Fold:
Amino acid sequence: MNKKTDLYMAVMGFIAIRGSIELIKNKRENLINRFSLKFFNNKIEEFEEIYNEAKKVKQCYNIIREKFDEEKKIVEIYEITKGGFLSKLWESSEFLDVGILYNLKKVPVKQMSIEIADFFDINVYRLYSENSYIVYTDDLLKFEKYVYESGIDKDIVPISYIGNTNDTKKKIRVDGENDSYLNKDYKDDIDLVIKNFTKSLK
Structure:
Protein backbone atom coordinates (compact mmCIF):
# COMPACT_ATOMS: atom_id res chain seq x y z
CA MET A 1 0.00 0.00 0.00
CA ASN A 2 1.25 3.48 -0.89
CA LYS A 3 0.97 5.51 2.31
CA LYS A 4 1.31 8.72 0.32
CA THR A 5 -2.21 8.30 -1.04
CA ASP A 6 -3.67 9.05 2.40
CA LEU A 7 -1.90 12.18 3.65
CA TYR A 8 -2.97 15.48 5.13
CA MET A 9 -2.21 18.54 3.01
CA ALA A 10 -1.43 21.91 4.55
CA VAL A 11 -0.05 25.30 3.60
CA MET A 12 2.57 26.81 5.89
CA GLY A 13 2.91 30.58 5.78
CA PHE A 14 0.90 33.21 3.93
CA ILE A 15 1.08 32.78 0.18
CA ALA A 16 1.89 35.65 -2.24
CA ILE A 17 3.86 37.70 0.29
CA ARG A 18 7.02 37.91 -1.83
CA GLY A 19 4.99 38.73 -4.93
CA SER A 20 3.07 41.40 -3.03
CA ILE A 21 6.30 42.99 -1.80
CA GLU A 22 7.70 43.10 -5.33
CA LEU A 23 4.53 44.66 -6.69
CA ILE A 24 4.51 47.25 -3.90
CA LYS A 25 8.14 48.17 -4.56
CA ASN A 26 7.98 48.14 -8.35
CA LYS A 27 4.49 49.55 -8.88
CA ARG A 28 4.24 52.00 -6.00
CA GLU A 29 3.11 54.83 -8.27
CA ASN A 30 0.10 52.75 -9.37
CA LEU A 31 -0.89 51.52 -5.92
CA ILE A 32 -0.44 54.82 -4.11
CA ASN A 33 -3.54 56.12 -5.87
CA ARG A 34 -5.62 53.44 -4.16
CA PHE A 35 -4.09 53.13 -0.69
CA SER A 36 -3.05 55.86 1.75
CA LEU A 37 0.71 56.36 2.20
CA LYS A 38 0.60 55.44 5.91
CA PHE A 39 -1.40 52.28 5.26
CA PHE A 40 0.88 51.46 2.36
CA ASN A 41 4.08 51.78 4.43
CA ASN A 42 2.62 49.79 7.32
CA LYS A 43 1.79 46.93 4.96
CA ILE A 44 5.33 46.86 3.58
CA GLU A 45 6.68 46.48 7.13
CA GLU A 46 4.13 43.78 7.95
CA PHE A 47 4.85 41.80 4.79
CA GLU A 48 8.61 41.99 5.25
CA GLU A 49 8.21 40.73 8.84
CA ILE A 50 6.14 37.78 7.59
CA TYR A 51 8.63 37.06 4.80
CA ASN A 52 11.64 37.10 7.14
CA GLU A 53 9.95 34.97 9.81
CA ALA A 54 9.01 32.36 7.19
CA LYS A 55 12.67 32.10 6.16
CA LYS A 56 13.28 30.27 9.43
CA VAL A 57 11.36 27.26 8.10
CA LYS A 58 14.33 26.41 5.87
CA GLN A 59 16.59 26.34 8.91
CA CYS A 60 14.49 23.79 10.80
CA TYR A 61 13.31 21.61 7.89
CA ASN A 62 16.11 19.03 8.10
CA ILE A 63 15.62 18.64 11.85
CA ILE A 64 11.88 18.07 11.39
CA ARG A 65 12.54 15.61 8.57
CA GLU A 66 14.97 13.63 10.75
CA LYS A 67 12.41 13.40 13.57
CA PHE A 68 9.76 12.11 11.18
CA ASP A 69 12.18 9.57 9.71
CA GLU A 70 13.07 8.33 13.20
CA GLU A 71 9.38 7.82 13.96
CA LYS A 72 8.78 6.24 10.53
CA LYS A 73 6.35 8.98 9.63
CA ILE A 74 5.96 10.93 6.40
CA VAL A 75 6.56 14.60 5.75
CA GLU A 76 7.20 16.31 2.41
CA ILE A 77 7.64 20.08 2.14
CA TYR A 78 7.58 22.03 -1.13
CA GLU A 79 8.39 25.72 -1.30
CA ILE A 80 5.90 27.74 -3.33
CA THR A 81 7.89 29.80 -5.82
CA LYS A 82 7.38 30.47 -9.53
CA GLY A 83 3.77 30.11 -10.62
CA GLY A 84 2.44 30.55 -7.10
CA PHE A 85 0.34 28.17 -5.03
CA LEU A 86 -1.63 26.51 -7.84
CA SER A 87 1.42 25.63 -9.92
CA LYS A 88 3.26 24.16 -6.94
CA LEU A 89 0.15 22.22 -5.91
CA TRP A 90 0.05 20.60 -9.33
CA GLU A 91 3.79 19.99 -9.43
CA SER A 92 4.06 18.51 -5.93
CA SER A 93 1.07 16.18 -6.31
CA GLU A 94 2.44 14.99 -9.65
CA PHE A 95 5.84 14.34 -8.05
CA LEU A 96 4.22 12.31 -5.27
CA ASP A 97 1.97 10.58 -7.84
CA VAL A 98 -1.21 11.18 -5.84
CA GLY A 99 -4.65 12.63 -6.34
CA ILE A 100 -5.80 15.53 -4.20
CA LEU A 101 -8.98 17.03 -2.79
CA TYR A 102 -8.28 20.60 -1.66
CA ASN A 103 -10.09 23.63 -0.29
CA LEU A 104 -8.70 26.82 -1.83
CA LYS A 105 -10.56 28.98 0.69
CA LYS A 106 -8.43 27.56 3.51
CA VAL A 107 -5.13 28.65 1.96
CA PRO A 108 -3.69 31.43 4.18
CA VAL A 109 -3.49 34.69 2.24
CA LYS A 110 -3.50 38.30 3.44
CA GLN A 111 -6.39 40.51 2.39
CA MET A 112 -3.88 43.11 1.20
CA SER A 113 -2.35 40.55 -1.20
CA ILE A 114 -5.82 39.84 -2.57
CA GLU A 115 -6.49 43.56 -3.04
CA ILE A 116 -3.15 44.12 -4.77
CA ALA A 117 -3.78 41.17 -7.09
CA ASP A 118 -7.29 42.44 -7.83
CA PHE A 119 -5.90 45.90 -8.56
CA PHE A 120 -3.66 44.47 -11.29
CA ASP A 121 -6.32 41.96 -12.41
CA ILE A 122 -4.17 38.93 -11.62
CA ASN A 123 -4.71 35.71 -9.64
CA VAL A 124 -3.28 35.84 -6.11
CA TYR A 125 -3.01 32.03 -6.15
CA ARG A 126 -0.64 32.29 -9.12
CA LEU A 127 1.53 34.96 -7.54
CA TYR A 128 5.17 34.38 -6.58
CA SER A 129 5.23 33.02 -3.02
CA GLU A 130 8.79 32.37 -1.88
CA ASN A 131 8.99 31.33 1.80
CA SER A 132 5.58 29.72 1.90
CA TYR A 133 5.16 25.96 1.62
CA ILE A 134 2.85 23.07 0.74
CA VAL A 135 3.14 20.24 3.25
CA TYR A 136 2.11 16.58 2.90
CA THR A 137 2.21 14.49 6.08
CA ASP A 138 0.55 11.61 7.88
CA ASP A 139 0.75 13.45 11.23
CA LEU A 140 -0.16 17.12 10.87
CA LEU A 141 -0.44 17.74 14.62
CA LYS A 142 3.08 16.46 15.20
CA PHE A 143 4.36 18.52 12.30
CA GLU A 144 2.83 21.66 13.82
CA LYS A 145 4.34 20.77 17.19
CA TYR A 146 7.86 20.41 15.78
CA VAL A 147 7.61 23.59 13.71
CA TYR A 148 6.52 25.81 16.57
CA GLU A 149 8.90 24.17 19.05
CA SER A 150 11.69 25.37 16.74
CA GLY A 151 10.81 28.96 17.60
CA ILE A 152 8.76 30.02 14.59
CA ASP A 153 5.93 32.42 15.45
CA LYS A 154 2.63 30.66 14.70
CA ASP A 155 0.77 33.96 14.35
CA ILE A 156 3.15 35.12 11.60
CA VAL A 157 3.63 31.73 9.93
CA PRO A 158 0.33 29.82 10.23
CA ILE A 159 -0.15 26.20 9.21
CA SER A 160 -3.54 25.64 7.58
CA TYR A 161 -5.05 22.26 6.70
CA ILE A 162 -6.38 22.39 3.13
CA GLY A 163 -7.22 18.80 2.15
CA ASN A 164 -6.03 15.22 1.62
CA THR A 165 -4.31 13.03 -0.94
CA ASN A 166 -5.86 9.92 -2.50
CA ASP A 167 -5.13 7.23 -5.09
CA THR A 168 -7.35 8.62 -7.89
CA LYS A 169 -4.68 10.85 -9.54
CA LYS A 170 -7.39 13.53 -9.88
CA LYS A 171 -6.79 17.05 -8.55
CA ILE A 172 -10.12 18.45 -7.42
CA ARG A 173 -11.06 21.69 -5.68
CA VAL A 174 -14.02 21.05 -3.40
CA ASP A 175 -14.92 24.42 -1.82
CA GLY A 176 -17.07 25.87 -4.62
CA GLU A 177 -20.64 25.23 -5.63
CA ASN A 178 -19.32 22.76 -8.21
CA ASP A 179 -16.14 20.72 -7.94
CA SER A 180 -13.42 21.87 -10.35
CA TYR A 181 -10.24 20.23 -11.61
CA LEU A 182 -6.77 21.73 -11.28
CA ASN A 183 -5.00 22.11 -14.60
CA LYS A 184 -1.28 22.22 -15.29
CA ASP A 185 -0.11 25.83 -15.60
CA TYR A 186 3.35 27.11 -14.75
CA LYS A 187 2.88 30.78 -15.56
CA ASP A 188 3.37 33.33 -12.81
CA ASP A 189 0.91 36.21 -12.93
CA ILE A 190 3.51 38.68 -11.63
CA ASP A 191 5.09 38.43 -15.10
CA LEU A 192 2.00 40.18 -16.44
CA VAL A 193 2.80 43.24 -14.32
CA ILE A 194 6.60 43.22 -13.84
CA LYS A 195 8.28 42.33 -17.12
CA ASN A 196 10.80 39.47 -16.95
CA PHE A 197 10.41 39.17 -13.16
CA THR A 198 10.59 35.38 -12.94
CA LYS A 199 13.28 35.19 -15.63
CA SER A 200 15.55 37.21 -13.35
CA LEU A 201 15.08 34.58 -10.60
CA LYS A 202 16.50 31.69 -12.61
In short: The helical segments are 17-26, 28-31, 37-54, 56-70, 84-96, 111-119, 140-149. The longest strand covers residues 159-166. The two ends are 38 Å apart (CA to CA). The beta strands are 8-12, 75-79, 99-102, 133-137, 159-166, 171-173, 180-181.
